[in-house]
Automatic annotation (TrEMBL):
<feature type="transmembrane region" description="Helical">
    <location>
        <begin position="182"/>
        <end position="202"/>
    </location>
</feature>
<feature type="transmembrane region" description="Helical">
    <location>
        <begin position="155"/>
        <end position="173"/>
    </location>
</feature>
<feature type="transmembrane region" description="Helical">
    <location>
        <begin position="270"/>
        <end position="288"/>
    </location>
</feature>
<dbReference type="InterPro" id="IPR050638">
    <property type="entry name" value="AA-Vitamin_Transporters"/>
</dbReference>
<feature type="transmembrane region" description="Helical">
    <location>
        <begin position="127"/>
        <end position="149"/>
    </location>
</feature>
<feature type="transmembrane region" description="Helical">
    <location>
        <begin position="214"/>
        <end position="233"/>
    </location>
</feature>
<keyword id="KW-0472">Membrane</keyword>
<keyword id="KW-1003">Cell membrane</keyword>
<keyword id="KW-1133">Transmembrane helix</keyword>
<protein>
    <submittedName>
        <fullName>EamA family transporter</fullName>
    </submittedName>
</protein>
<keyword id="KW-0812">Transmembrane</keyword>
<dbReference type="Pfam" id="PF00892">
    <property type="entry name" value="EamA"/>
</dbReference>
<feature type="transmembrane region" description="Helical">
    <location>
        <begin position="245"/>
        <end position="264"/>
    </location>
</feature>
<feature type="transmembrane region" description="Helical">
    <location>
        <begin position="103"/>
        <end position="120"/>
    </location>
</feature>
<feature type="transmembrane region" description="Helical">
    <location>
        <begin position="70"/>
        <end position="91"/>
    </location>
</feature>
<dbReference type="InterPro" id="IPR000620">
    <property type="entry name" value="EamA_dom"/>
</dbReference>
<dbReference type="InterPro" id="IPR037185">
    <property type="entry name" value="EmrE-like"/>
</dbReference>
């Protein structure tokens, strides 16, 4: 019974994450990237507060922060503040069908950073995975013209790759976190909000936003940053086969591309599919060989 629930939670999380690239592009029609971070973070914080209250853990929030205030400040500044500002800006500059697969290479970035910061050994299969993954990145970024190395938006590509560094850094720091995962993520949103709000006010006035924009950003806050994280954590807690649940994430980018083509009419360049297949092959090599990145199985890619 637990395995059935784990599979259900895992599939629900993957399907919801598959929709967020489309939701990002729709929401960016109404908000700037920093405004989007603010609004989505507020929604996420409210949702996670409700979940923590329902789980009977909310009273531990203040104590958890007081034990390591500087640590949670650093985590919050990396994710959600810096990570989502960079990621949303990348989505603003690039087609979502490019930004999403580029960001999906974060797990390969994590392998390299774990070797540098955690002293983990990189084996031959990891180097092969990295080579495949980053060649896939080049194929996507250049639309298949890998010899010319010309990018439609070099800044957008750089930001998409920077988002993988920030995400990997966040999860490396998160290996030191012994607190409840829901409380840890909630604290990240709470400590980051003053910074994101200040930056949004400094960047300019907020426009009058119709209800469609608020609905879209609420969807992002709930299903990119908030509820879906809890579904994924529950799936991993219930299962006796973590690899099987973790492998579900490989479905996500392909569903995402289908939704982008269907809902917002983005043209999916053939090189995007080729590059994505290379990235996924690299990730499968890591999974098949039993590579376990630090705490990586506790999260996902976009």
């Amino acid at each position: 019974m637990n395995e059935r629930y784990a599979l259900g939670y895992g599939m629900a999380a993957v399907l919801l994450w598959s929709t967020v690239a489309t939701a990002f592009k729709i929401t960016l029609d109404y908000f700037t990237p920093i405004q989007m971070v603010v609004a989505a973070s507020v929604v996420s914080a409210i949702a996670l507060t409700g979940i923590a209250y329902w789980q009977g853990k909310l009273h531990l929030l203040g104590r958890t922060f007081a034990e390591r205030p500087f640590y949670y400040l650093c985590l919050g500044l990396i994710n959600p503040f810096a990570y989502y500002v960079v990621l949303f800006k990348a989505y603003e500059l690039l087609p979502a069908s490019q930004a999403q697969p580029l960001n999906y290479s974060w797990a390969i970035t994590l392998t390299l950073m774990a070797a540098v910061f955690l002293g983990q050994k990189i084996r031959k299969q990891d180097w092969a995975a990295c080579a495949l993954g980053y060649f896939g990145v080049i194929v996507i970024a250049t639309k298949g013209d890998v010899l010319a190395l010309q990018f439609d938006s070099p800044t957008g590509v750089a930001l998409a790759l920077l988002s993988t560094l920030l995400w990997a850094m966040y999860w490396i720091l998160n290996t030191k976190n012994q607190a409840d995962p829901v409380l840890g993520v909630l604290l990240g949103f709470l400590v980051s909000l003053p910074f994101s709000i200040s930056l949004s006010l400094y960047s300019g006035e907020w426009p009058s936003i119709p209800w469609q924009g608020w609905l879209a950003v609420s969807y992002v806050g709930l299903f990119e940053m908030g509820i879906t994280f809890v579904l994924w954590i529950n799936a991993l807690k219930l299962t006796q086969n973590t690899a099987r649940i973790s492998n579900l994430i490989f479905i996500s980018p392909f569903i995402s591309l289908m939704l982008l083509a269907t809902i917002i009419g983005e043209e999916i360049h053939p090189s995007t599919l080729v590059g994505l297949l290379l990235i996924v092959c690299g990730l499968v090599i890591q999974q098949f060989k039993g590579k376990k990145s630090p705490e990586a199985v506790s999260d996902r890619s976009q």
